[in-house]
Amino acid sequence: MADRQSSYGNEDSVGKQLDEIKKNSRTIKGSLTRYILNTKTLIDGERLRRERFGEEDKSKPHKTIILVGETGTGKSTLINAIINYMLGVKWEDRIWCEIIETKDDQTKSQTNAVTVYDVFAEESPFSLSIIDTPGYGSTEGKEDDLNVTETLHELFRSKDGVREIDLVCLVVSSNTTRLTDRQLYVFDSILSLFGIDVERNIVVLITHAPKKPKNALKAIKESNVRCAKTGKEPVYFSFDNSHCEDFNEDDDKTAWDKNEENMQNFFTFLNDSKTVSLKMTENVMKLRKQLTASIFNLKDRIKQTDQKKTELEQTKKALKQYEEEKKDMNNFEYEVDEVYKEMVPIESEWWHIQSKKATCCRVCKENCHYPGCWWVKDVSWCSVMSKGKCQSCTRKCDAKDHFRGEKIYVSKTRKVKRTYKDLMKKYEKESGETKSVMSSLENEIKENEVEKKYLVEQCYQNVVTLEVTALKSDSAFVIQHLDFLIEIMKEIGKTEGVQRLEELKKM
């Protein structure tokens, strides 16, 4: 970073890019002059925004970082501090530049969208993209957090999105004495998105830290958060955000200088960090979504097999009674609860209204991805698709056999009457030969159980694969399904699998 010599309050000392900022930015006067930076909006969505500041210089290297932390940790102020450092703003300039307006008198509307700030500063040796996740861990709950995760998947996967990462920054306040369940949930949720190859690129940023943040460091160590380490110590950088507000006395210059030194150390680490491709991370995200989709689909299919088993048992009972009473089978008639599928509107309160979409297979009549990819326009881009085939539905059908809509398949039953002739037609047609109807019924019941075991094993293997691939496999998004999977595996007698899943849950 260039070292500009400047005198107190001498605005002529400000560099060329800052001169442009002063001309073209909204100004708020105070003990220091705040400049609200004008940015060019590249993406202006409800969940994803992308803004650019400055003119791109393709001769410079480019770095990308993501900041994540519980609401209220000071991410916005920290991002502004990074921008000021890149611009070369000095204490003597008596100015403060904001790409995110943080004061109460702000006029820009705040958003919970994931926002990418592409920053091109003339003073900086490299350009920088900062991915901000505002609202993560807010009181709005998991629904918004799932939208953040889905948005990051879109960002990492799209052609013009983010394909590489240099640092994942976990932001905590220095007054933290222990990481709360909410903080751990936020970190787990983010870390579960990344592959194991990102661990050395995870650092801790500690805000509101005028001195060494011993308590926060202890809390990080005790929580066993996965991050880069020097020996047994987590790699961290601390910042004192107080100087970013208003300053009048020379004491504030000490805080400014200390913060600038800390920022320089952070940028040196960033500059030396090895860029990591997000290909493995994208695969982890896709696998996680396939896992979730398969579990939702599994629940529906297990329900259907149980309903089908009831139907078959009713048939078997009626047939056995006729055989024991030696009645004429030509007069055999019985009533069963027949299983059928019906499409119904999605009514889950768990979704935002815009997200009420599901990917369904018209051949298998199954919900292959529900909840579905809210941002996908072409069904072939849905996360459950791989090489044009669905990885969720029973027959692994082509993408062209699927559709996206606001309805899902629901398995229902209805009372119907059947005859012995109906059974003979069914089993002769399916087996290709005449068999005992009773034997065929018993075989079909057994096949249902085999299918059920196969589906459970498939889900279990997805969890195991994810545990090996992901940086943090025991995220809240998997935990919410473990109870269901554990109970089903107990039912089919998979003792070792149950033990492994219970250990994962305890973590």
Word description of this protein:
By secondary structure, this protein is of the alpha/beta class. The protein has 2 domains: 11-276, Rossmann fold (3-Layer(aba) Sandwich), CATH 3.40.50; 281-346 and 406-506, no CATH class. 39% of the residues lie in helices and 21% in strands. It contains 11 helices and 22 strands. It has helices spanning 16-24, 75-87, 142-157, 181-191, 214-223, 251-272, 279-324, 420-431, 437-469, 476-491, 495-506, and strands spanning 26-28, 33-36, 40-44, 48-53, 62-68, 95-98, 114-119, 127-132, 164-165, 167-173, 202-207, 229-230, 233-234, 236-238, 276-277, 333-345, 358-361, 366-369, 385-386, 389-390, 402-405, 407-419. An 8-stranded mixed β-sheet has the order 3-4-7-8-5-10-11-14, with helices on both faces. Strands 1-2-6 form a 3-stranded mixed β-sheet. Strands 18-17-21 form a 3-stranded antiparallel β-sheet. A hairpin with a 4-residue loop joins strand 1 and strand 2 (33-36). Helix 10 (476-491) runs antiparallel to helix 11.
Summarize the structure.
The chain has 507 residues and is α/β, with parallel strands linked by helices.
Structural class estimated from helices and strands = alpha/beta
Q: In CATH's first tier, which class of the largest domain applies? A: Alpha Beta
Distance between the termini: 44 Å
**Gyration radius over CA:** 30 Å
Number of helices: 11
Strand residue content: 15-25%
Helix share of residues? 25-40%
> What characterizes the major β-sheet?
8 strands, mixed
CATH topology of the largest domain: Rossmann fold
Q: What order do the strands of the largest sheet run in, or round the barrel if closed? A: 3-4-7-8-5-10-11-14
Number of domains: 2
Q: Residue-averaged pLDDT, rounded?
A: 80
| CATH structural architecture of the largest domain | 3-Layer(aba) Sandwich
CATH H-level superfamily title of the largest domain: P-loop containing nucleotide triphosphate hydrolases
Low-confidence stretches: 1-14, 105-109, 349-354
